[in-house]
Design goal:
Number of helices: 33
Strand content: under 5%
Number of domains: 4
Largest sheet: none
Oligomer: single chain
Distance between the termini: 68 Å
Radius of gyration: 36 Å
Shape: globular
């Protein structure tokens, strides 16, 4: 029916070039020439002075019916054009009726200018104020906290955070700030603000959160930057079709090969399979995109039709794994070459964990990095390993790890549970494995018999924020040990720390450049748990200067004194960039912990400080 309507409309356009019919008068005759007694009585209005005409007739006699006034016809060379409109011509390249019959609906829409400008009705369109996912009542940051901040400062903080964060808890904090419902800073377009936040979430490996954020903006408000961020987030979650509404609404915002292929795939899933096949064949012939990208798109689009066209995926000559290739290959169940997958950046591991179509064993292997970074929770880790244990087809290392995790929960003796956890932690001390065992560690009884493993057990609990469970060990650890250091930082009750106990910890510190001691001093000083004299003495011994300022430390300090937790969280993200804790200095940690504690984010400050010591 829709095609018939469009073709009829096109035919009407064609016929208009032949003759232009006069408009039909739909009023009944009584309204055009009513009887004299039904004529409305004219209002008393001043009569205009008529211009005398040379051909005027004599005035009618009193009591006779007035003669009808007839408009004189114009004369001269333009008289014909006034009597009938000029014929309307069509472009020389306008399709014929036969060609129109062969066109897809989308092509006809494009030809006749019927493409929609908005994807939601006017009454359902959303305001660009308070764009985000988490309201302040749900744990988000105050909506107006950035409204009066300089746009340049907020933009610099969002654009300046380029790499991963060294801290899992810092990552979680920044994610919450970016996902909060927030007003845009003064002088910043709300669309730009949303695009900057979504792009940073993508760089952090938070594709799902980025998708939720961009979906809070109506499609007609998108610009190129927000479209780019949305496209990357849909690819990172393996949901190429999620971007189709935007591809239909903004076909011209991008002109790259991936966007061309996306439009063709979306056409296929809207039933326009012939048009999609032609566009993909054209892209392959013209080199609009690499062959491997086109072949993946053809296979993906073919799943929308009768699947009668076989497409062979050949990886020969492909030397780079892109997000497009990863996303489509995972969705199609196409095996990735081992050399490409191994050489891919770490962000592909984060994407693999989020894409449901990825084989379970590969999701489990990628989960360690995701847990270390903070993109998945301890519960999500346990769920993945539980599925692996229940799947008899999974063997090898993944199977053994799943078995060890089960023993960490159900072994009869606490020592056997700890032994199973050691098997998971391994020799490299992966922090992601500490996240994995957090709930199992919390089930253990606090006992001096397990003091040798207390440091790792407490670090594991704190990796999931289980500070209440960790504090049960306060009477079972030795002062000056790593377990003691973690508990002094994580203790929600606060309290001053004895300088002698700190000295005992520092004297036994075997970390590179006494990094753990520096982090412990920075954390305790930032939380206000050491007196000034002890801070001065220990700073001199460790050659630290917490008073030294930089442009960044001045900004985060000003934000803290202004009581702005959102800006503090954004600036903390800037200061925690790096692939390892060797990239973090004790001075930076001090400013971050102090600022967070000042603006009421004491729990986050404690967890970040404890994580620094555990991983330093």
């Amino acid at each position: 029916m829709r095609r018939a309507f469009l073709l009829a409309g096109a035919a009407l356009v064609l016929s208009s070039s032949l003759v232009m019919a006069q408009p039909e008068d739909l009023l009944p005759d009584v309204f055009n020439d009513p009887p004299p007694e039904q004529r409305p009585t004219p209002r008393a209005t001043p009569r205009p002075q008529a211009t005398p005409r040379a051909t005027s007739s004599a005035a009618p006699a009193r009591g006779s019916a007035p003669a009808p006034v007839v408009q004189a016809l114009p004369s001269g060379p333009n008289a014909a054009s006034s009597r009938a409109p000029a014929p309307i011509g069509l472009p020389a390249d306008f399709p014929s009726l036969a060609e129109l019959a062969e066109m897809e609906d989308d092509e006809i829409n494009e030809l006749l200018g019927l493409r929609p400008k908005f994807d939601v009705p006017a009454g359902a369109r959303r305001s660009m104020e308070r764009v985000g996912v988490i309201a302040s009542s749900e744990g988000g940051f105050p909506y107006a906290s950035l409204a009066r901040q300089p746009a340049a400062l907020v933009r610099a903080a969002l654009e300046g955070t380029r790499g991963p964060l060294v801290s899992r808890w810092g990552h979680i904090l920044l994610r919450r700030a970016l996902a909060s419902r927030l007003d845009a800073p003064a002088g910043m377009n709300p669309v730009e603000f949303a695009a900057l936040r979504a792009a940073l979430l993508n760089r952090m490996g938070e594709g799902k959160v980025a998708v939720a954020l961009v979906q809070d903006v109506d499609g007609n408000n998108y610009d190129r930057a927000l479209l780019d961020a949305a496209f990357d987030s849909y690819l990172a979650t393996g949901d190429l079709l999620g971007v189709c509404p935007l591809a239909r609404l903004h076909p011209d915002l991008r002109e790259d090969g991936e966007w061309t292929l996306t439009q063709a795939v979306c056409d296929a899933y809207l039933g326009e399979t012939r048009s999609a096949e032609r566009d993909l064949d054209r892209a392959l012939g013209t080199g609009a995109a690499p062959e491997i990208d086109v072949r993946l798109a053809q296979r993906f689009a073919g799943a929308a039709g009768d699947a009668g066209r076989a497409v062979t995926i050949e990886w020969d000559g492909v030397d780079e794994l892109t997000l497009w290739r990863l996303s489509l290959a995972r969705a199609l169940g196409v095996d990735l070459p081992e050399n490409l997958r191994t050489a891919a950046p770490a962000r592909f591991d984060l994407a693999d964990v989020m894409i449901p179509a990825v084989p379970l064993a590969e999701r489990v292997r990628a989960a360690d990095l995701a847990a270390t970074r903070g993109t998945i929770s301890a519960r999500a880790m346990v769920d993945l390993y539980a599925q692996s244990y229940a799947n008899e087809a999974i063997t090898g290392t993944v199977r053994q790890d799943a078995t060890n995790l089960r023993l960490a929960y159900v072994a009869a003796e606490p020592s056997a549970r700890v032994e199973a956890m050691r098997g998971l932690w391994g020799e490299d001390g992966s922090y992601g494995r500490l996240v994995l065992t957090a709930f199992a560690a919390a089930r253990l009884p606090a006992s001096a018999d397990l003091s040798d493993d207390a440091g790792d057990l407490i670090a594991s609990m704190l990796a999931a924020g289980l500070d209440g469970n960790a504090m049960r060990w306060a009477d079972s650890v030795d002062a000056g040990s790593q377990a003691w250091a973690l508990l002094t930082l994580a203790d929600p009750r606060g309290g001053q720390v004895d300088g002698g106990d700190f000295s005992s910890f520092a004297s036994d510190d075997a970390s590179d450049e006494a990094r753990k001691s520096g982090f412990l001093l920075a954390g305790l000083a930032g939380l206000g748990r050491l007196d000034a004299a002890t801070i001065a003495d220990q700073s001199a011994d460790l050659e630290l200067d917490f008073a030294r300022q930089s442009a960044w430390s001045e900004r985060i300090g000003q934000a803290a004194r202004a009581g702005n937790p959102t800006l503090v969280a954004l600036l903390a993200g800037v200061g925690m960039q790096g692939t390892g804790w060797d990239r973090m200095t004790a001075r930076q940690l001090f400013h971050i912990v102090s600022a967070l504690n000042t603006v009421g984010l004491g729990a986050e400050a404690r967890m970040i400080a404890a994580e620094a010591v555990a991983r330093g």
